[in-house]
Amino acid sequence: MSQRIARTTLTALALACIATLGHAQQGKLKVGLMLPYSGTYTALGVAIENGFKLRVDELGGKIGGREIEYVKVDDESDPAKATDNVNKLIKRDNVDVIIGTVHSGVTMAMAKAAKESGTVLIVPNGGADAVTGPMCAPNIFRSSFSNWQPAYAMGEVAAKQGKKTAMTITWKYAAGDESVAGFKEGFEKGGGKVTKELTVPFPNVEFQALLTEIAAAKPDAVYSFYAGGGAVKFVKDYAAAGLNKTIPLYGPGFLTDGTLEAQGDAAQGMLTTLHYADGLNTARDNSFRTAYATKFKLQPDVYAVQGYDAAQMLAIGLNAVKGDLTKKAEFSGAIEKAKIDSPRGPFTISKSHNPVQDFYLRKVEGKENKLVNVAVKGLADPGRGCKM
Ligand code: BEZ
After folding, report:
1. By residue range, what is the domain housing residue 173?
2. How far is the centre of ligand 1, averaged over its atoms, from the C-alpha of 126 (Å)?
3. Tens digit of pLDDT for each residue in 217-245?
4. Ligand 1 atom having least distance to the Cα of 228
5. pLDDT tens sequence across 264-319
6. DSSP readout, 197-240?
7. Which helix (H) or strand (E) holds 121?
8. Among 274, 296, 318, residue at a domain's last position
9. CATH number for the domain including 214?
10. pTM given for the model
């Protein structure tokens, strides 16, 4: 072998060694799952984790060439514990990425910690408008929605249906307040008027006095934000008071997603708006639903889709940097440019890192939130206050 060939061979060997070493040094990808595993939002946390893990399985158990190690924290949907909980993941467990959470108040505490530490955060539900508003950051993405989005869509639908007055009833925290604000914006732009805003503290489910007030006021419609266990109780109480016969109950789809088994007759005929629906009947959604049902012996809901898409977004970013999360700008840039092939339908990410997506009008029929039509196409959150 000539000296030149020998030198070239040695250089190639050295480069190969460095590449292998680089990969080995990256080791496992530590993913912190901070989700509710107790309380009214438990089912939502479980569905998000299931969806995320389904996508990881489909990718052969690796993301960006790295095996996954999970660290789980039950956030209990408790904002008072949120900062401690997220800091356990960031400072004690040294996670590479955080996926979480459901509750808007907890999500905001997580976004603050992620922004300060630079840890990648993908929010698979928590709709707090601020997360992709004033709190926006290059390392924070959402695979779900802002509270404004489905609410604004429902406001438009209610106005188009000719409703003139509406009362609102929600939990008193960011998600409820912002949902009502979004509904009001869409409804009042279309000529309607929100006449009264009623609330109960989160996660209370004592609705009787407020339902009596609604019955006496007789608005054309009621708009409500509840989810999980609280949504089950509210929809049943609304029907038990006989209000479903006289005043249509509208809401973002959380009011009836993943809850129909328990709500039964009480939810029949309800109209809601959301970025997912039963009966989309696309090849992408059908294969997702079959895979989910086979693996978990459950039907997927919007929360499962959001978890699944959080894993898809993470994979897009990590593949672009070959698993090397120190390349932060390339990681974020890849997600920003992507069209995500979601079971909900393809979506892109806005400048403030929130999905730009279609909102469906759905009607409850049996145990399904059946697709009626696309209420608003390609709806982007305004991203008010985001400077990036
Ligand atoms: C929220 O707190 O942002 C939220 C919780 C459950 C469903 C939808 C939104």
Report:
1. 148-274
2. 5
3. 999 999 999 999 999 999 999 999 999 99
4. 6
5. 999 999 999 999 999 999 999 999 999 999 999 999 999 999 999 999 999 999 99
6. EEEEETT----HHHHHHHHHH--SEEEEE--HHHHHHHHHHHHH
7. strand 120-123
8. 274
9. 3.40.50.2300
10. 0.94
